[in-house]
Design goal:
Layout: H1 3-9, H2 44-53, E1 63-65, E2 75-80, E3 85-90, E4 93-99, E5 112-115, E6 118-120, E7 136-138, E8 145-148, E9 161-163, H3 165-174, E10 180-184
Parallel strand pairs: 2-10, 8-9
Antiparallel strand pairs: 1-4, 2-3, 3-4, 5-10, 6-7, 7-8
Length: 185
């Protein structure tokens, strides 16, 4: 049974993948929210990032991380496929935000609520030519994971969420097995 069928049975959806030329950004969506938010129409998480870090948007390969993290609170990861951004929280406190690269056309980064099922500081893909997956954190039984890798700022992976290497390392240090992951867009 395919991943899309299993996700549909679980009440989740797979993300539509925009068709992009190499290096091109997606066109604005129907409600006129541009690819990189402006502060006025941004989701609250992005407004929090601006308030905390002073940056309204991140370029491909960029990330921000809080200088001091609270010791208490469960970690949680929120992925926005539309904007190609990943946010990490501890409790209600935003720890960091990063550009990312999700599934390119023909592949799927699945929407839904997930948990971290497996963590390995270095791993190699069993599906894609033994490709390196540093700071791998798997969320499903099909190999979809967070990991460090090429981060052009648009969908370019086989389904994983590629992060800037240093952000992937920091994220790996904050999460644990069972950490909640929300993928939306």
């Amino acid at each position: 049974m395919g991943c899309a069928v299993l996700l549909a049975l679980a009440g989740c959806q797979t993300a539509p993948q925009p068709k992009l030329a190499s290096g091109a950004l997606p066109a604005p969506i129907a409600n006129d929210v541009p690819y990189h938010w402006t502060l006025g129409n941004a989701p609250q998480a992005h407004k929090d990032m601006v308030a905390e870090f002073g940056k309204p948007g991140l370029k491909p390969g960029e990330f921000v991380w809080a200088a001091a993290a609270p010791a208490e609170g469960e970690p949680r990861i929120v992925v926005d496929l539309l904007t190609q951004m990943t946010y990490v929280y501890r409790g209600d406190h935003l720890l960091g935000a990063s550009s990312m690269s999700s599934a390119r056309t023909g592949h799927v980064t699945p929407y839904c609520n997930w948990t971290i099922l497996e963590k390995r500081p270095f791993y190699r893909s069993k599906k894609y030519d033994n490709a390196p997956m540093p700071f791998m954190q798997r969320i499903d039984d099909y190999g979809i994971a967070f990991h460090g890798g090429v981060n052009p700022g648009y969908p370019a992976s086989h389904g994983c969420m590629r992060l800037p290497m240093k952000f992937a390392e920091k994220l790996y240090g904050v999460t644990r097995l069972g950490t909640k992951v929300i993928i939306e867009g």
